[in-house]
Design goal:
2 domains; 5-stranded antiparallel sheet; alpha+beta; single chain
């Protein structure tokens, strides 16, 4: 199921250079029911890097006679394909992916949750959303924790989205906020930035730009998805 959800996520990036389908309506069918954030510790899932499927270069050692002769090589003998350009490229790509992959060790961070409902008649497949914090003493001091989620929400159904981030809301606390003894230290809200439907139509918030998160999006879909529903942007 997760692999099926990943396919439209990867295709989305390709479609950004083209004219997207007309939005289904002036307003998103997604309604935010409630939301909250908490401190959390999460063991990031250890994922195997994507192995390059590039065919090996046709070097002399890959011809029938030499290839059959290598069968009798002692255990641990170096594969001559590793010294080709394709072999070195595959090795570098594997090292990069392993370095960027989650380590599987517990990490202290923050869990951001939002319960949403699909009030429309179309199946929702992908949701871009953000948890936003604003200091009451200065409305321009804002932190945004953005997430990308692969979902399958049928008409009239609701789902709780959960994103994890090592970044919390503390970077929006100013001196004025710390001195404010009345009211909440932070103002919070959840915004749905973009919704992609199963029929290929897209709704996007007018004052949100996909270009702002393009690089973060490429990183988010750059490795296979495990059991997680959402990834941070």
């Amino acid at each position: 199921m997760r692999n099926l959800l990943l396919l439209p996520l990867l295709l989305t990036f390709v479609s950004q250079t083209q004219n997207p389908p007309a939005p289904p309506a002036d307003h998103s069918s997604i309604v935010v029911i409630n939301y909250k954030w908490t401190k959390s510790r999460q063991a990031l899932e250890k994922l195997d890097p994507i192995v390059s499927t590039t065919a090996p270069a046709m070097i002399p050692d890959n011809k029938n006679y030499q290839r059959n002769a290598r069968i009798n090589n002692p255990v641990g003998a170096r594969d001559p394909n590793e010294d080709t350009i394709d072999g070195r490229h595959a090795a570098l790509e594997k090292i990069t992916q392993e370095a960027n992959a989650p380590s599987g060790k517990p990490v202290d961070g923050f869990s951001y949750r939002a319960k949403i409902q699909n009030t429309g008649d179309k199946v929702v497949e992908i949701v871009f959303w953000e948890y936003q914090f604003t200091g009451p003493a200065n409305a321009s001091i804002t932190a945004r924790r953005q997430f990308l989620c692969g979902v399958n929400i049928k008409a009239g159904k609701d789902k709780e989205l959960q994103g994890f981030s090592v970044s919390g809301p503390s970077d929006v606390v100013s001196v004025e906020t710390l001195g404010n003894k009345s009211g909440s230290a932070l103002k919070e809200k959840v915004l749905v930035n973009r919704v992609e439907y199963a029929d290929g139509t897209i709704w996007q918030r007018k004052d949100w730009s996909f270009a702002e998160i393009r690089l973060a999006y490429k990183r988010a879909v750059g490795t296979p998805w495990g059991s997680e529903m959402c990834r941070g942007l």
